[in-house]
Amino acid sequence: NHMIPTASGVALTKSLEKHGGSITEPEMTAKLELDMLKISNGESTLDGVVKESQDMLYDAASKISENSDVIGEEIRSALKSQQFIGTCPKCGNPMVIKRSKNGNFIGCNGYPECTCAYPVPKSAMIQTTDTKCSVCGLPQLKIIRKGIPPQVCCIDPKCTSNTSKNYLGKCPTCNEGYIRILYSKAGKRFAGCSNWPKCNQTYPLRPKGTITPTEQPCQVCGAPVISFGNYSECINMDCDSRKRKLE
Ligand SMILES: [Zn+2]
Ligand SMILES: [Zn+2]
Ligand SMILES: [Zn+2]
Ligand SMILES: [Zn+2]
């Protein structure tokens, strides 16, 4: 249910068009419009047109049933490729979406010899890509969340390509952890300390727009300063630097 349900639908339509002959909708609509015209100026009769349409549908339906094996196979392989995330860099087997009692995850078909496994991004729609992470070589996924532009990310949340993107700066509360962008179960983004649960510092984030870390601490409170393209602000909503801006 995390996948965008296009691939299989597209495969079905394509397959039916390919094997169903005259059933494609634009052609059929065009023909019917022409027939209406012919009826109105007396060239055809209503009964004739209905009979012709029935023949056309019968023809298409019998073509589809003749080819049902091929159509089934095409849909099956489209569904398979929808599950295919990429090639495992460790063993070369395909990595696919797998189901478990604890929900879906990305696993290697080389299991049990290869135990490569990664979480499916939560509360997001995902699309497969054919690109690989430039840092670690794992497959990348396009992650689509409400309000923010789609991101192409490495499937390993611990990969530095991901952690550096989400890294906002040092935690001013515990001085040990760092503040990074996280996503709640409902898909809302917020910032939290990596030292959790020892340090429970979190900051709400604006739900929209691309956040760019500035890696600068706020001059007033020490929390990370983030940029939204045309302006930057301290991540801490209660910070005096933000109150001053409003005045
Ligand atoms: Zn593997
Ligand atoms: Zn990576
Ligand atoms: Zn902290
Ligand atoms: Zn501040």
Terminal CA distance: 46 Å
Largest sheet: 4 strands, antiparallel
What ions, cofactors and ligands are bound? zinc ion
Structural class: alpha+beta
Rg over C-alpha atoms, rounded to the nearest angstrom:
27 Å
Helix/strand order, N-terminal first: HHHHEEEEEEEHEEEEEEEH
| Average pLDDT level | 85
Share of helical residues? 25-40%
Itemize the secondary structure elements and their pairings.
Layout: H1 7-20, H2 25-40, H3 46-66, H4 68-83, E1 84-87, E2 94-98, E3 105-108, E4 117-119, E5 125-132, E6 139-145, E7 148-154, H5 160-166, E8 167-170, E9 178-183, E10 189-193, E11 202-204, E12 212-217, E13 224-227, E14 232-234, H6 240-246
Bound molecules: zinc ion (4 copies).
One zinc ion binds at residues 133, 135-136, 138, 154, 156, 159, 161.
Description:
It is a single chain. The longest helix has 21 residues, at 46-66. The chain folds into 3 domains: 7-77; 88-120, no CATH class; 161-246, no CATH class. The chain has helices at 7-20, 25-40, 46-66, 68-83, 160-166, 240-246, and strands at 84-87, 94-98, 105-108, 117-119, 125-132, 139-145, 148-154, 167-170, 178-183, 189-193, 202-204, 212-217, 224-227, 232-234. The chain is elongated, with a radius of gyration of 27 Å. The strands form 4 sheets. Strands 1-2-3-4 form a 4-stranded antiparallel β-sheet. A hairpin with a 2-residue loop joins strand 6 and strand 7. Helices cover 33% and strands 28% of the residues. It is built from 6 helices and 14 strands. Helix 1 packs antiparallel against helix 4 (68-83). Residues 1-5 have low confidence and may be disordered. With 247 residues, it is an alpha+beta fold. It binds zinc ion (4 copies). One zinc ion is lined by residues 218, 220-221, 223, 234, 236, 239, 241.
